[in-house]
């Protein structure tokens, strides 16, 4: 078996070479990615693989400082906020061009926002705009004041709005390019960023080239190629033999080998993430008006496509939490690169409730709860298993196998379901799953980006869900909305702590781990800085 595996890995590396070619120090960097993108419209994706490519093509009004979630000017040079916090006037950078040669201006900003929130906008039909519902439902409108001044108007104060504006969702797209490609614009991205789109060969690679007319200094790299290599061992081998110059998500078992290789450098930073297994509680809603909020009087709860009666019962969900030895998973699969999770956001964030006692590993108690719920002999359930490595879960199949084994010990038979990454995301947002492996990396450093997006009832919209347990507790949503509406950090923290108590009791998720971010580059690649949000900015990178 070992010899066959080695041959397979060599063949995989050979395919990388044949498609991409050997990159040299002349300015081409090939990066080994774990999966392909789901699309290339920054406002219509939720997955890291897509975002990481687009971070080098598009820009927003503000951006994060290197290695942090502090914001600084980007396409806006300055801004002023009204006393009540509901209006922000932005002054735009002049002389900036989109990659298609057209001008960046206020019209482009209004277009990029309005196509997401205005259901009558002619380009609203070309996307689902899930993140608008997650993070921007407090936005009323974006107005043009003059060619280089715009005003963002909010429905109510929003404590996270400025950091949220550094997110990919509100990056500015070329209206001319959108008009040219219409429903195919997601295959033909056009922004103002340091790299221009060249080609996307699905499930193989995406090629970018330096933007010669960039408003800052031109990028050092001439070309940037994201090559899909799904197997972590094959990614490392490709790096070792020089077929790629950087990789993501190395296998923790290979870290000592990487550290011992003088031709490689390992970058490691704490992750702002959580990996989990979600259990579909059975009900969501159809967001008819696409406002990102469940309107209780007109949008009733309906069964999700993955409705499965056992998981609608709290005792069953608690039993599943008790049946899984999370510490063993962290020790033996994450191998020192993560800490065990008990809540749905990282421990260092505002409002983290450390007083909550995690579900212990207690198979006997799990069996008692299953019997109490009416399932003394267990049942059969399907688990969606991610086909790609993620920052919070480097090897989903192995973690799935561990969960399968633990649940079998209490009488629950787990069957696996796997499909390509784009389909996986769409099916889980639609609620087709019974249970699924997923996770989250924070987008802006604010607790709202975990709590509201992942656990709020508003995020249970079938088709664009971020709450994959379809946990529709309205009292919990009221707490999360109140936390977002105040700038008082003590009050915000109290709201979030109370919400975590409710989420823990109702047990829609098995929280597994908060993991470190690990990336590996050739030793002659310099300038890459890991961002807490797991976004990849290659503009500063040089090959010496």
From TrEMBL:
Transmembrane helix among keywords: no
GO MF term set: peptide transmembrane transporter activity
This protein's record includes keyword Chaperone: no
Cellular-component GO terms for this entry: ATP-binding cassette (ABC) transporter complex; outer membrane-bounded periplasmic space
InterPro entries recorded: Peptide/Ni-bd (IPR030678), SBP_5 (IPR039424), SBP_5_CS (IPR023765), SBP_5_dom (IPR000914)
GO biological process assignments: peptide transport
Sorted UniProt keywords: Signal, Transport
All copies of domain Solute-binding protein family, residue ranges: 71-457
Family from the record: Belongs to the bacterial solute-binding protein 5 family.
Protein name: Peptide ABC transporter substrate-binding protein
Naturally occurring in which organism (per UniProt): Candidatus Sediminicultor quintus
Lineage per the UniProt record: Bacteria, Pseudomonadati, Atribacterota, Candidatus Phoenicimicrobiia, Candidatus Pheonicimicrobiales
């Amino acid at each position: 078996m070992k010899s066959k595996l080695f041959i397979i890995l060599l063949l995989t590396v050979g395919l990388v070479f044949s498609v991409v070619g050997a990159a040299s120090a002349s300015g081409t960097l090939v990066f080994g990615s774990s999966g392909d993108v789901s699309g290339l419209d920054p406002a219509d994706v939720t997955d890291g693989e897509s975002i990481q490519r687009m971070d080098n093509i598009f820009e927003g009004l503000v951006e994060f400082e290197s290695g942090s979630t502090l914001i600084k000017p980007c396409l806006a040079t300055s801004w002023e906020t009204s006393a009540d916090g509901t209006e922000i006037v932005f002054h735009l950078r002049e002389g900036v061009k989109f990659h298609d040669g057209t001008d960046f201006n206020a019209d482009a900003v209004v277009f990029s926002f309005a196509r997401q929130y205005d259901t009558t906008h002619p380009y609203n039909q070309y996307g689902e705009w899930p993140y608008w519902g997650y993070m921007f439902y407090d936005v009323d409108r974006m107005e043009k004041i003059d060619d280089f001044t715009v005003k963002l108007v909010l429905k109510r104060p929003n404590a996270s709005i400025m950091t949220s504006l550094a997110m990919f969702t509100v990056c500015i797209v070329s209206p001319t390019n959108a008009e040219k490609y219409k429903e195919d614009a997601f295959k033909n991205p056009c922004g103002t960023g340091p790299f221009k789109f060249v080609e996307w060969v699905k499930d193989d690679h995406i090629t970018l080239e330096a933007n010669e007319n960039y408003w800052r200094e031109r990028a050092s790299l001439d070309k940037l190629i994201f090559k899909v290599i799904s197997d972590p061992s094959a990614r490392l081998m490709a790096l070792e033999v020089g077929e790629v110059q950087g990789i993501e998500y190395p296998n923790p078992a290979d870290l000592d080998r990487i550290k011992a290789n003088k031709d490689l450098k390992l970058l490691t930073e704490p992750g702002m993430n959580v990996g989990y297994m979600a259990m579909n509680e059975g009900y969501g809603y159809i967001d008819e008006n696409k406002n990102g909020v469940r309107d209780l009087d007109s949008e009733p709860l309906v069964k999700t496509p993955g409705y499965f009666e056992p998981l609608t019962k709290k005792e069953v969900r608690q039993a599943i939490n008790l049946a899984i030895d999370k510490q063993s998973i962290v020790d033996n699969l994450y191998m020192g690169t993560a800490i065990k999770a008990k809540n749905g956001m990282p421990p260092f964030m505002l409002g983290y409730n450390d007083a909550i006692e995690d579900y212990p590993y207690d198979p006997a108690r799990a069996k008692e709860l299953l019997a109490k719920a009416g399932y003394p002999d267990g049942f059969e359930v399907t688990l969606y298993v991610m086909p790609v490595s993620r920052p919070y879960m480097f090897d989903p199949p192995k973690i799935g196998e561990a969960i399968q084994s633990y649940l079998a010990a209490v009488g629950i038979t787990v069957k696996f379901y796997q499909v390509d990454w784009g389909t996986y995301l769409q099916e889980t947002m639609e609620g087709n799953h019974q249970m699924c492996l997923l996770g989250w990396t924070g987008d802006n450093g604010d607790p709202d980006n975990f709590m509201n997006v992942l656990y709020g009832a508003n995020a249970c919209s079938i088709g664009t869900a971020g709450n994959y347990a379809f946990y529709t507790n309205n009292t919990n949503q009221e707490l999360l909305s109140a936390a977002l509406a105040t700038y008082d950090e003590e009050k915000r923290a109290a709201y979030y702590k109370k919400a975590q108590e409710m989420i823990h009791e109702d047990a829609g998720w098995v929280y597994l781990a908060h993991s470190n971010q690990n990336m590996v580059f050739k030793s002659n690649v310099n300038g890459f800085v890991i961002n807490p949000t797991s976004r990849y900015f290659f503009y500063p990178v040089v090959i010496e």
